[in-house]
Each structure stands twice: as C-alpha cells, then as structure tokens.
Design brief:
Blueprint lengths: L1 E8 L2 H14 L5 E7 L5 H8 L3 E4 L4 H9 L7 E4 L4 E3 L3 H11 L6 E8 L9 E2 L11 H7 L8 E2 L6 E4 H7 L12 H11 L5 E11 L13 H9 L3 H8 L15 H17 L2
Parallel strand pairs: 1-2, 1-4, 2-3, 6-7, 6-10
Antiparallel strand pairs: 4-9, 5-10, 6-9, 8-10
C-alpha cells in the first residue's frame, strides 16, 4: 500500500516505537524505508537487523536529503513521510486510504492528525499528554482513549505523516535539498504541490498518530526556512497558510487560489519584509 519514508538521527527508542507501531497498528502491510543519519546510538545496527531496505549517511544530512536518498527504493503507489518520533495508532492507514478512494484526482496532500502532549498553539492537532519520551509513554492508556478525543477534518495538510501519490512525489522532486536540514521544508513541498495543481490539502481526523514533538530539531543548526520560503515563492509562509491552504480551518473541499489583489498584497508584504530584514 504505502511506501513510508522515515529519517532518523540517533533516536533509537523512538524509532523502535515508530516502526513497531506501523507493523502492529496498520490494517495493511506497508514498505518501511528508514534513512539513518549517523546511527552511532545503535540505530544503524537495529535497522540492519529489522528492515530489508534502508539508506545511511555517516553524518546528519537532515530530513530533506534523507527522504530523497530513500526515493529510489519506493515501490508502492503512495508515498508517506513520517517522523521517527511518531507512534501510528490503529487504523491510521485505512482512514487515509478511505479518503484517497473518495477523491476524483491523484494530485492531493493528506495528513494524519497528530496528538501532542502539550499545547503549541497548533489548531490542527489534538492536545493530550500520554508521555513526552519513550520511557514515560503510556501506550495502553493512549490505545484506550485515542478514538474518543474530539477532532474534525481540517484544512491545510503539510505536516507528517502526509501522503501523496508517487507520481507527484517524483514530479516535484521530493523535498528540496536547499531547505536542509529541514526548517520550512514541509511548506515548501506543499507549495510545490500547489504549483503542480494540487488543490486538496486535507487533515484526516480519523487517521491519528501520537507525536512526541521535536526530538531532533532541538539538536540541529537550523536553516532560515522562513526567509528561504519568501525568497523562493515571493510570499510569506503565513500568507500561504491563510490564503492558499487555509491551515487549521474546518475542511470544506477543494481549495481555490486567492483573489488577485490578495495575492499581490501578499507579494508586496514579502518584499518589504525581505528588504527590511525582519
């Protein structure tokens, strides 16, 4: 069904949870592909022992180059990008496939809905604390309660786990290496899909994963993704979220481009921001 791309960087306890949750809680069998960055914590050896296919770099090359390194191994029709600090909940895959079956196009972006342990002011997630690391993770409580946590379908899919058709993954070139190690790479990929004609950006409430939150990003030297996005696309990420994909709003179907005057204002705002360096 899916080819699932998972970049990892010395996060072995989380990687084990992630891979095991996919195997235990998926309705269908999927191809799991992991790129190991560094792997000195034992994750390289674990992947060698538990997965038939993987890629490896002896240093951390970031998520963009990592998922692109896995692209040659993709064999299934749909490509999922998932973080290594996520736990896939029962039926996560069937809910996404059920949504795909309803669509009249193969040019789409769908996301699972994340459950996170604390409030980051993200309107697209469910806030409920079942542990903040592998040692405190209350798996059984989560499995008993995740279905009853209230959430409706939402607009603005960019975050992993996200799924696209392999045809479009290849057409837009996967994630952009220039955004390495990865800040704003999700939005850049979503904009590349928009430019390719995608108008379906749906967060699926019935597809759920638990997300431990930023177990790698706190250790990296971050790229200035916000500035790179403006330079590349001519608008701010916030404008893309609000006027293009309506992130966090209730899902109401296919999107339409912003009106011409709104798009012009967004471009002027980005130019001013870049000019004054804020």
């Amino acid at each position: 069904m899916f080819s699932i791309l998972i970049p990892t960087w010395n996060n072995l306890p989380f990687l084990k949870l992630c891979v095991e949750s996919i195997r235990q809680n998926s309705v269908f069998e999927h191809q799991i592909l992991v790129h190991v960055n560094d792997g000195s914590d034992g994750s390289l050896q674990w992947v060698k022992e538990h997965l038939p296919q993987y890629s490896y770099s002896d240093t951390n090359i970031g998520i963009c180059k990592a998922v692109n390194a896995l692209t040659p191994y993709i064999k299934n029709e749909y490509v999922v990008f998932m973080n290594d600090d996520m736990y896939a909940l029962p039926g996560w895959d069937k809910a996404l496939l059920d949504e795909i079956a309803k669509l009249d196009t193969d040019c789409f972006m769908l996301s699972s809905t994340m459950i996170e342990p604390y409030n980051t002011k993200n309107a697209c997630v469910i806030v409920a604390d079942y542990g903040r690391d592998a040692s405190t993770f209350d798996e059984q409580k989560l499995l008993g309660e995740f279905k009853i946590l209230p959430k409706n379908d939402w607009s603005g899919s960019t975050w992993p786990p996200n799924v696209v058709h392999k045809k479009w993954w290849l057409a837009v070139g996967g994630y952009s290496d220039e955004f390495s190690p990865g800040m704003s790479s999700d939005d850049d990929f979503a904009m590349k899909m928009w430019q390719a004609g995608c108008r379906t950006y749906k967060g699926v409430a019935a597809s759920r994963v638990y997300h431990f939150i930023s177990k790698s990003t706190g250790r990296i030297t971050r790229n200035d993704g916000r500035k790179q996005f403006m330079q590349k696309w001519g608008i701010k990420q916030s404008a893309f979220h609000k006027y293009y994909i309506h992130r966090g709003s209730p899902y109401r179907g296919k999107l339409t481009p912003p009106v011409a005057w709104r798009n012009l204002i967004s471009k002027i705002e980005a130019q001013i921001t870049l000019a004054i360096g804020k």
